Amino acid sequence: MKKHEFISELKEALEHNMDDQKIKEHVEYYEEYIRGEVKNGRLEDDVVNELGDPWAIAKTIRLSEGMDKQETVYTSEEMPSEEPKQGGFNWKAILIIVVLCIIVFSLLSAVMGLLGLAIRYAFPILIVVIIMQILKRK
Q1: Is pLDDT above 70 for 56?
Q2: Where are the domains positioned within the chain?
Q3: Cα dist. 33→3, 7, 22, 102 in Å?
Q4: Which end of the chain is more exposed for a tag (fewer CB within 10 A), N or C?
């Protein structure tokens, strides 16, 4: 992550319930820290990566200033979206259910078809065999 990305995300994360002056102070602190480390010979990317996630830093700042109650600290990837989810259907699940229903009904049809054939042809043959067995005994 580049310095300007880090600073931009930090500003965005601090904007919730914090006045502009406080945001400016914190942003200037981190800008100065990064600038100082680079002046001491470190790479800007290394310094920024070492600092970590700006959303977690912002949460820590708000907690230390008593602005937030103790909660889960989100990273930028985990931050809950404020936009409502679109289309609330899980199409994959619906597709799986439909495919399973088709398979089950196909199998039932095949089994019922085989039973129908068995009853149509095997039942009369079975009756003939039983009658022959009865006649043999007499």
Answers
A1: yes
A2: 3-64, 90-138
A3: 11, 12, 17, 63
A4: C
